[in-house]
Structure formats: C-alpha cells, structure tokens
Amino acid sequence: MPVVAQVLRSEWTKIRSVRSTVWTLGIAVVVTVALGALVSALVERDYHGLSPHDQLTFDPTFTSFAGTGLGQLAMIVFGVLVVSNEYSTGMIRTSLAAVPQRGLFLFGKLTVATLLALVVSMATSFITFFVGQALLGAHGAHLGDPGVLRAVVGGGLYMTLITVFAMGVAAMLRSPLLSLGVLMPFFFLVSNILVNVPATRKAGDYLPDQAGQKIMQVVTVDNTAPYGPWGGFAIMALWVVAAVAAGYLLLRRRDA
Amino acid sequence: MIELEGLTKYYGEKLAVDNLTFTVRPGVVTGFLGPNGSGKSTTMRMVLDLDNPSAGSVRIDGRHYRELVDPLRSVGALLDASAVHGGRSAYNHLLCLAQSNGIPRARVAEVLDMVGLSSVARKRSKGFSLGMGQRLGIAAALLGDPRILMFDEPVNGLDPEGIHWIRNLMRDLAAQGRTVFVSSHLMAEMALTAEHLVVIGQGRLLADTSMAEFIARNSRSFVRLRSPEPERLRDVLHAAGHPAAVGPDGGIEVEGVQAARLGELAAEHRITLHELSPQRASLEEAFMRLTAEAVEYHAHGQRRPGAAAGAAQAAPGAGSEGGPVPEGTAGGGWGQDWRKKGG
C-alpha cells in the first residue's frame, strides 16, 4: 500500500518538525528518571527505618518507577498536542484535503506517534530501572529476577498506552485545552482518590491507569485487585481501544 | 471540472447552502461571488469533502473527492491561509503535504520559489505576515500541479503588488487549460479576473453567467431628467422616439440618448428642467442589489409581488427595475428574467 507509506512519511515529517514533540518527550524522560532516582535514593537511606512488614513487601522495581505518575502527564501532553494541534491551528482542513480518508489519516498519525512514544517510553523505563536499582544498592532488584523484566517492559508499555489514550481523547474532544483539562486532573488526582477511598476502591481498580500500573509491580502481596499484571494491562488496552474508536467515529461523522 | 448538483447544507436548523447546481469549467477563471456569510466557504469545503453535504453531491472530473488518488495532484485549494501549524517551517509544511500525496521533494522548493518565499523557507510560519501566509497557502495549492484550483478570497491581506501577482497567476493557470474557481465578496475584483461568474446569496444561486454578459446587462447607462411638467416631458420624449421610464425616486430615465440631445429637445418644447444628469449603474451596485434581494427574500420568507422598494433603496440610482428575483429562476433562468425586465 504505497498510500499508507506516504501518509506515515508525512506524519513523521509533521511530528518531527514541531518543537512541542522534543519538549514534551524530553520532560517525560527527565521527570520520570529524576523522580524515580530521587525516591530510590531516599528509600535506600531510610530503608532500616521501615517497618518489618514494609521491608518484607518492599518492591525495588516499582519504587524506581515512582516518577511515572508525574512523567506520564508529559506523555499525555505529547499525545494531546499531536492530535489537537491539527484542530487548534486549522491544519486539519489542509491535512484532510490531502488525505480525505479519515481512517487512513487518523491511524497514520496514531501509528507514527505511538511508535515514537513506544521508543521513548521503553528507553525511559529501562533507564529509570537501572538508575533506581543502582541507587538502591544492596536493596535493588536485578533484571533477571522473577517478574522484573516483565515489569520494566511493562513500564514502557504503560507509558505508551497512556499516550495513545490521550490521543484518542484528543481526537474526540479536538480542543487541546479541553483535552488536557479533562486528562490532567483525572490522572493526577481523581484516579488516585477513587482508588484510595474504600467506597470507590473496587471501581477504581478498573480505571485505565490503575489497572495498567499493575504491570510495573513485582511484589503484589498488598494487591487486592481481582486480576494479575497482564489482566490489568488488558483492561487498560480496552480503554485505549474504546477512546481511539470513539475518536475515529467522531472524526468520520463530523465536519472538519 | 467541478460539478455541483443540488448541493445543500444545513447547520442544525440553519440553511447555509440551498440546492446549488452549477458547473465550473476548465480554461477560464470562474468567479464565485457573494456577500460575507452567503455560503461560499461552506460550498468550497463540501467540494473538498471536508463538510458532509446534507443533500446533493459534488463531482471532480466525474468522481467524488474521496475517490481521488493523491487528491492534491487533482485539486489544489487555498481555503484559509492561517490553517497551518505556526511552529512548522514553510518548507516542512509543504513537505508533509507533498509526502502524503507522493509528490517529489524537489517540487517543494519549486513552489516556494514560484510564490517568492524561498528566502524564508526554513522560518517558522507563525512569524509570517498576512501576505506571506497567503503566498504559503497558494504554494500548497500549486504543490501537486493540479488541473483544478480553488481559492477562497485569495487577495485578502495582500498588498497591491501581491494582488496584481494573484490576478496574473489565476489568469495564467486558466490559460493553461486548468479549472480555476475563485471566491470573493468584491465585484470589482471579480470584474478584473473572472471570465465566468457564479453569484450566490443566502446560500442560493442568483446568477450563473459569463462576465461579459453580466457587464452588458448591468452597467446600464442612462440620463435622468426631472421637470415640473413630467407628463408633457414624457409625451415629447415619446414623440421623439425615446422611450422613457419612471425611476424609483420619480425621475424620468432615458436610455441610449446623449444628455445634450435631451436638453435640446426640452428647450425646443420650452419645458423647464430641474435635472439633466447622465447616470451609470456600477457593477458593484448591480451585485449589491442582486444579493440584497436574496437577503430580503429570506427575511420575509416568501415572495411579495411588487416589493421592489426595499431592493431599489439598496441601490439608489441603479435603475427603475429591481423586483425580487422570482423563485425557480436559478441558473440561466435568472439571466433571462433580468433581460426581460431590463429591456
């Protein structure tokens, strides 16, 4: 399909030729790694002050991913801007005149942005892990330990999926401000509150980020959710598919 | 060739484009004229399949826009020059469009040169002036070397030199046998560039005629006379073989006779004249009258026979005729009706 290759090439040019790409992805890497390193260093220093229970259930891998919660917000900004920039600038009309097949346009864009997010997320996840474990010293985990490689790869996949979810929501809402206004508070506050309040805990376990984050945990004794790491990842993937499908259907129906 | 058939667009309850049927032919510049908000841009967006028509269809050389392979190679359009990502350089903006349609990279530099933006090709377009942005939009339209070109208000924001350039560009493109469809709300601008004219008002087709025909019909010149003895004056004019009409303000209007001859005629019969003035209805007036009628039409929702007053007031001195355009005279029919009343 030469047309598909053309659209992918075009979308790659679009994504690499605006500064927001470098900024958002750069901030995601720096925040995730730096915060993970900071928390790992602090935990290493205070390890002997932890209660026996906390020491027994200590998850060095998940500890090094402490920056994910904040770093994912930068990935969300990246995902939102990739899609909603088309609308906020009016470029969408030029783009759709060039590629009138809505599906080809949207999936071309999402494919390129997702691949880029995947590369950046994977690199971030491995860097975060190795930096965190180095700072944890004797308490750190090794990539060969059971479940650790899955958690580190999962960290990269989690960051990627959260980005695609943001792209789907932006395709639905079109406005960057509205999309960020919905996604940022949700993932930064609302989801954490829902999952920590006993009354909403059960429902909170099925939110995309809460379910998806399970894949980054190696020690799961405190985990009350009725699904495993890949089960949680599948739940998150369903959310992503739903958001992208809704974005696509709206794009097909709407006037540009 | 662009063929519109029964093209209709509702935004909610509001009718934006009302059953438009016309054809834009190759080899000439076709002007698309209408006041602001008359549905020109909506129509153009439907041609590009950006907006879905509520009814009717558009064919590009017989095919629907979405069926075109590499559409930029068939149709180039400038709809809204500000519709670019300001953070992207002019070169990269054109490059991503070229790549999406399999247009070679060398063509990007070529069109940048054509529109005179080579020196700022690597600059981000958010720093561009209105005129430079317009040139970038035109470069994008020319990118695929298309047979059909569509420009929405292309002279907006251009300096006189830029306007001159655009006019020549459009004429050259048409002379190469391409289809050139250009919208404007300025009749004077169209009179300089377009050979064919499509006029819409309130989304409805008001005229589909050649520019020469439109000018011949509408730039009517006549002499207005005013006298305390209008009946006697009219008898004298009639006897001399000059048919006279009564204008909207009560003045007597005579076509095809020099003012000097009419003055002499009045003097011969010792008729006092209070006014003897040559008049010329401008194209702009004719256009305003035409579209004002469409506006009035919608305001009342139905045709009021003899509701000429409102229309005539819109263009004083434009002539005695000026009843509303009857329904069902869209297309060539409008012209015939005009001739009947004008003659």
Automatic annotation (TrEMBL), chain A:
<feature type="transmembrane region" description="Helical">
    <location>
        <begin position="104"/>
        <end position="131"/>
    </location>
</feature>
<feature type="transmembrane region" description="Helical">
    <location>
        <begin position="230"/>
        <end position="251"/>
    </location>
</feature>
<feature type="transmembrane region" description="Helical">
    <location>
        <begin position="62"/>
        <end position="83"/>
    </location>
</feature>
<feature type="transmembrane region" description="Helical">
    <location>
        <begin position="21"/>
        <end position="42"/>
    </location>
</feature>
<dbReference type="Pfam" id="PF12730">
    <property type="entry name" value="ABC2_membrane_4"/>
</dbReference>
<keyword id="KW-0472">Membrane</keyword>
<protein>
    <submittedName>
        <fullName>ABC transporter permease</fullName>
    </submittedName>
</protein>
<feature type="transmembrane region" description="Helical">
    <location>
        <begin position="151"/>
        <end position="173"/>
    </location>
</feature>
<keyword id="KW-0812">Transmembrane</keyword>
<keyword id="KW-1133">Transmembrane helix</keyword>
<feature type="transmembrane region" description="Helical">
    <location>
        <begin position="180"/>
        <end position="199"/>
    </location>
</feature>
TrEMBL record, chain B:
<dbReference type="InterPro" id="IPR003439">
    <property type="entry name" value="ABC_transporter-like_ATP-bd"/>
</dbReference>
<dbReference type="InterPro" id="IPR027417">
    <property type="entry name" value="P-loop_NTPase"/>
</dbReference>
<protein>
    <submittedName>
        <fullName>ATP-binding cassette domain-containing protein</fullName>
    </submittedName>
</protein>
<dbReference type="GO" id="GO:0005524">
    <property type="term" value="F:ATP binding"/>
</dbReference>
<comment type="similarity">
    <text>Belongs to the ABC transporter superfamily.</text>
</comment>
<feature type="region of interest" description="Disordered">
    <location>
        <begin position="301"/>
        <end position="343"/>
    </location>
</feature>
<dbReference type="InterPro" id="IPR003593">
    <property type="entry name" value="AAA+_ATPase"/>
</dbReference>
<feature type="compositionally biased region" description="Low complexity">
    <location>
        <begin position="304"/>
        <end position="328"/>
    </location>
</feature>
<dbReference type="GO" id="GO:0016887">
    <property type="term" value="F:ATP hydrolysis activity"/>
</dbReference>
<feature type="domain" description="ABC transporter">
    <location>
        <begin position="2"/>
        <end position="227"/>
    </location>
</feature>
<keyword id="KW-0547">Nucleotide-binding</keyword>
<dbReference type="Pfam" id="PF00005">
    <property type="entry name" value="ABC_tran"/>
</dbReference>
<keyword id="KW-0067">ATP-binding</keyword>
<keyword id="KW-0813">Transport</keyword>
